């Protein structure tokens, strides 16, 4: 009996293209809800309600003016405006609100055209490493299309953003961000940033209808910035799920800049989120569209917490030798005490951790430890507190356990076991001791 040859496997069915009813990802309109900050969707609902009420107020104002003019004449309408000084609001309601859908569409179209006309498009042949990160993030997040990606001149500004026009989606990376990528800098930090921006797209943050129906929320004090911060925390969750090993590098970048980022101890940065409970720090956060850096670093270090919006996070790993900024000045050290602390730290500082004046491309620093080792080292002159980061698993998709990973990506990487393939200097063919990235 002749056995028929096995049937050839059928080619994978590509996902349906984006439409008005299926969302930018294969996860549907709401996406993966557990990866979102818990405040995002409730605040979005408030924004939709505010926008609908604005349109109802617009319709009511127009209908009321027409009725009053028909019933009482022009003099009655003029008399109302004499008693109520709401002319700027009336102008906005009558002229701007009904044009808002067109204004949003037009601005996004111009932005996309400007980028296409002036920026470098990432592709398989142009900035292929960056484009690979975009494509891999799109695949990880279940996006139906790989978004367009552009590099634009940063002129010293370290930034990136995501937007769209129609069903098109795109990310833009300032050229200065590439100066922290590659072997000379911090490739994982760049990967985290790209994952963060593609995460904005995957979460639907740049959807035309989302922008249209949440636009009025940006005019509401406290709630508008809070909604923006919740979206940033969500995008950080996406970035962490894509490149957790880059989270410490990004916090170093956002606080120390693209040259001193390698010298920032992110544990000291994250600890100040809990040890500085000043009202004025809260005030700065309440008015900010992005989480303040110390709170953001704390949320990326302790993945059991989704990030704070109103009240500072609690719990710190290390105690600083200096008082928190909200303490009375009488607790600050005198010059002699400060110099004594410096001398103590110098005596216990490991070799290669001094000379903190930045690392520059092309300047060899063989005696220096890796940037990640400096960023995640135990702070000097600091005792342990009672705070412990739970090892997981956690409640959302971004914080699930990773095979072979540390409990926190801010923890120093564990040294790999020796093998026959390693050279005399340990891992890394150049003897640098740089450990490979852990699987995400």
Q: What does this entry look like structurally?
A:
By secondary structure, the chain is mostly helical. It has helices at residues 40-72, 74-83, 87-118, 128-140, 187-202, 208-214, 223-242, 247-260, 266-275, 279-286, 293-301, 335-348, 371-375; strands at residues 120-121, 148-152, 160-165, 168-174. α1 (40-72) crosses α2 (74-83), α1 packs across α3 (87-118) and α9 packs across α11 (293-301). The protein is globular, with a radius of gyration of 26 Å.
Features:
disordered C terminus; globular; four-stranded mixed β-sheet; 5% strand; 13 helices; mainly alpha; 440 residues
Query: Ranges with pLDDT <50 over ≥5 residues?
Result: 416-440
Q: Tell me the strand percentage band.
A: under 5%
The strands making up the biggest β-sheet line up spatially as 1-2-4-3
* Bulk shape: globular
Largest sheet: 4 strands, mixed
Could you state the oligomeric state of the chains shown? single chain
What would you report as the Rg, rounded to the nearest angstrom?
A: 26 Å
- The helix-strand sequence is HHHEHEEEHHHHHHHHH
- How many DSSP H or I helices? 13
Q: Structural class, please?
A: mainly alpha
Helix percent reads 40-55%
Number of strands: 4
What is the CA-CA span between the terminal residues? 49 Å
Round the mean pLDDT to the nearest integer and report it: 81
